[in-house]
Design a protein that fits this description.
Layout lengths: L11 E5 L6 E3 H5 L6 H12 L3 E4 L6 E4 L2 H7 L6
Antiparallel strand pairs: 1-2, 3-4
Length: 80
C-alpha cells in the first residue's frame, strides 16, 4: 500500500496585489491585506525604519520616538 502525499494549494484571490499586480492568497486578502507578502514586507520595512521605541530619559518609560534628533540625543556617549 502506498500513501500519496497531497500538497495544500493556496486559493488565489481574484484581485491582484496593488503594488506588483501578482495574485496572492485569498486568505490574506480576507484578513484585509491589499498586498502580497513580498510587497507587504517591503512596505513594513520602510514604515518601521521611521520610528523606534526607546527610553528617552534615564529610568523613564519606553516611548515611541519618531524624531531622529531626539533619538540621537538619547545616547550622550555617541556624539556623531
Amino acid at each position: 500500500m502506498t500513501q500519496t502525499k497531497t500538497k495544500a494549494k493556496h486559493v488565489l484571490a481574484d484581485t491582484p496585489c496593488i503594488m506588483c499586480d501578482e495574485l496572492y492568497p485569498a486568505a490574506r486578502r480576507n484578513l484585509g491585506y491589499p498586498t502580497c507578502t513580498e510587497c507587504g514586507d517591503r512596505v513594513a520595512a520602510e514604515v518601521r525604519s521611521k520610528w523606534t521605541v526607546a527610553q528617552e530619559y534615564n529610568k523613564g518609560n519606553y516611548q515611541l520616538i519618531t524624531n531622529p534628533a531626539t533619538l540621537r540625543g538619547i545616547n550622550p556617549k555617541r556624539t556623531t
